[in-house]
Amino acid sequence: MGIFDLLESAYNGLIEIIESLNGKKPTSGNHNLTPQTLKTPITSYEHTINDETKILTEEQRQIKNIIELHEITELVHFTDVANVDSIKKYGILPKAELEQRGLKYMQNDPYRFDKRCDAISISITHINKFLLRSFFYKQILLNPVAFHIDPAILYKEIKTERIYCITNAATHDAPKGPNLSDFEAMFNDKVEYTTTFEKKTFTRKNKSINETTDPQAEILFCGRISPEYFLGEPTPVDIGDFYGK
Q: How does pLDDT run across 189-208, given as a tens digit for each residue?
């Protein structure tokens, strides 16, 4: 048996192993083996059998692990119903980009005390009911809707800056940052910080695994959120659901 025959035999055996791992019935016979095909079929099978984690960087895998650990199935962004058509067309854009493009929009927060007009505020699992209620009382946002966002955006769009905030981003003295430790801190057993008026303390008592310790915790996502990450249609928010809660 010549060297080429040995290579063909080894190649066919490898194909059978790969196909069996993928639940396929092994095929037999000549695979049109040439020096070139000794390379190309292996590459195509690599893409067939690899799982998502195989092509992620270490940082992406760690973010994905945090999402899975806390069973996070969606991120949430609320806005005025008047913005829905534009968002479906262009995606969710930061205030600065909306103004740069000259797009008309109904703004949620004319003050932006967090001073991050380059960022989109998104919550984990639930809407920030305290902030929404405040906007409603101030007659700023009267017809809110919620966009539901695939949390995979946090590791798939890894090059987009994000800031993980253990509470409302406008709380200047509260810890926040772009690191994995800042993301994990949103779910700490105890979250403490001091506002202008008082010291705040939150614990995990009565919290579901996918809820942040402080219900006002948020992520500032510094870039566009493409419609491809939307989980279904936006849903109307009944402000009455938040009274007394």
A: 999 998 878 899 999 999 99
Please list, in sequence order, all residues whose beta carbon lies within 8 angstroms of the beta carbon of residue 111, skipping any fewer than 6 positions away.
none
pLDDT tens-place string over residues 73-107: 999 999 999 999 999 999 999 989 998 999 988 88
Strands (E), 93-238: 120-124, 144-149, 162-165, 176-177, 190-194, 199-203, 218-221, 235-236
Q: What's the structural domain count of the chain?
A: 2
pTM of the predicted model, to two decimals? Answer: 0.74
Residues 87 and 195 in one domain: yes
Distance CA 166, CA 169 (A): 8
With a CB cutoff of 8 Å and minimum separation 6, the contacts of 192 are: 199, 200, 201, 202
Range of the domain at 154: 62-242
DSSP state of 30: -
Whether 57 maps to a domain, the answer reads: no
